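Thanks for the sequence, V.! I ran Pyridine nucleotide-disulfide oxidoreductase right away. Repeating your input here for the record:
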Amino acid sequence: MSHYDLILIGAGHAHLGVLRRWALVERPPGRIALLSAGHDAWYSGMLPGLLAGRFSADDCRIELAPLCRAAKVELIVAEAQGLSAAQQQVELADGRMLGASWLSLNVGGQVAQPPQQGADMQLLAVKPFADFLAGWQAWQAEPQPLAILGGGAAGVELALALADQVPQLALFCAGTLLAGHNAGLHLRALGHLRQRGVQVRENCPIERVDEDCLISGEVPVWRGHRLLLASGAQALPWLAQSGLSCDQGGFVQIGASLQSLSHPQLFAVGDCASLPGARKSGVYSVRQAPVLAANLNAVLRGLPLRAYRPQRQSLALLATGDGGALLGWRGWSAGGQFYGRWKDYLDRGFIRRHRFSG
Ligand SMILES: Cc1cc2nc3c(=O)[nH]c(=O)nc-3n(C[C@H](O)[C@H](O)[C@H](O)COP(=O)(O)OP(=O)(O)OC[C@H]3O[C@@H](n4cnc5c(N)ncnc54)[C@H](O)[C@@H]3O)c2cc1C
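Predicted structure:
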């Protein structure tokens, strides 16, 4: 079994930020590896633009090999399928075991899937992105009516990106559309969706898929053959089996230093972690990067740790599929092409910052 001083598991937003910092300034001492399921990290913020035909695939992904080389970190391309918190060991899907003195988890989450009876409906989850894009390409070759499950930012952006590409589109949300965002943003999003012919069904939780029907409250609410899953992040099942202290949803409970509450040798950040006040969104994961980089450096050098405090508000910028975007900030909302150009500038800046040559 190979042993490392530190293994970063998953190329999520925070780990990309850590690697970038180590590429630009001195990295901590020791044998360090990044374990990633793929050779690239896809940037979810640009995915709707990719689907709308505004970006190429290369615009939306960060190649990990040059970033790791610049950070002097070993890249291991393999999927983690188990973790022992007590033994600090990671089990890979190819059967290998890796051990480490310190571990950091940034593996995101998976998309929720309703129970399905029969095989009349094809289901496609928006994550992992590489699988989703391959599945969508096949669907795109033969457009058919489509239903999207999930009324959060991802569901809204996907519906607006795909509305012109399918003969009929329905968007189902368990509660209200964009719950947790301000009322103005909710109304603007509804207006855009209706204008593009999207049938929006709020407060309509889909309990199961029965042959070619979506069932809510024992009533068939949509009939078709294609369902896109874009509802909230669910914890990866192996986290709850690792021995780590997890919340009710199976997400790893952490404290302000970003360390596991039960196993301080292990850090967790982004969607896979549970910390009061931190939301499951890329924005929060990005903001955890500087504190994580400092704390991983601190534990490897025996220095004091820093505290992360989640921001109370975050800016929402939702792509409308036509080059524009909707903006939500506190109680305020706006929309138009100007915000779309701003979003593009921010998104392209994220990719540029993490792209290293050589
Ligand atoms: C269409 C869409 C649009 C979105 N737009 C935005 C937006 O504009 N702004 C925003 O803030 N949020 C947005 N989100 C939400 C955002 O994608 C997530 O909240 C965010 O990606 C979580 O980041 P993370 O750092 O936790 O990990 P992720 O970005 O999810 O990265 C996890 C990484 O871990 C890897 N991984 C997973 N499992 C394993 C494993 N077993 N072994 C090894 N590696 C593994 C994955 O390959 C991936 O590289 C959007 C989501 C979607 C679906």
